[in-house]
Design goal:
single chain; about 20% strand
């Protein structure tokens, strides 16, 4: 049985470590395959339509970003009615309090682990579309990861250029550009 505790606006879920890694590996494979398929399609239609090429490349990057987040033991998941019911039932059992779990997108990330279990935090995504949240989260993780050692490298230089472009389009997420 999975243990779920409500903590402020998040849910802490204790998951057997083997199950957690099996799901991550499966989803990494799924997202990499989707990214590769989109990239392949973009190559095929490159001379056909600039609009479709942009959308196809956008999804290739989106799925690549999703895979990267999974490598970092985080990402976005959609909790439907079935999962909502499981969460609510387990919260009642372990927390002796009932909680109304919203349906929708949740950001998850590993909080801690030991030899047998992983504790994962799930935070409801609110009203913003998951695509916007993906880019915000990816930027935050990249900044945290790459600037951790505060060392100048070629990778940091490239990343700084990417962030420079992102700042110019701060109010224009890739998903908004995709719709134009």
């Amino acid at each position: 049985t999975t243990k779920i505790l409500k903590k402020e606006s998040s849910y802490l879920v204790e998951i057997p470590i083997g199950d957690f890694y099996k799901v991550l590996v499966s989803e990494i494979e799924l997202f990499i395959n989707k990214a590769n398929m989109q990239h392949y399609e973009a190559e095929k239609i490159k001379h056909f339509s600039n609009n479709w090429n942009f959308v196809t490349l956008y999804y290739s990057f989106f799925f690549s970003a999703s895979a990267l987040l999974r490598f970092l033991h985080s990402g976005f998941v959609y909790l439907d009615e079935e999962i909502k019911a499981i969460f609510e039932r387990n919260i009642s059992v372990y927390d002796s309090a009932s909680a109304e779990v919203p349906i929708g997108n949740f950001y998850f990330s590993e909080v801690e682990k030991n030899d047998t279990n992983v504790i994962v935090s799930f935070t409801h995504g609110g009203r913003s579309p998951v695509h916007e949240k993906m880019w915000v989260q990816l930027e935050a993780i990249l900044k945290k990861s790459f600037y951790k050692n505060n060392v100048e490298t070629d990778e940091i230089d490239v990343l700084n250029k990417i962030f420079e472009v992102c700042k110019k389009y701060r109010n224009n997420f890739p998903s908004e550009t995709r719709h134009k």
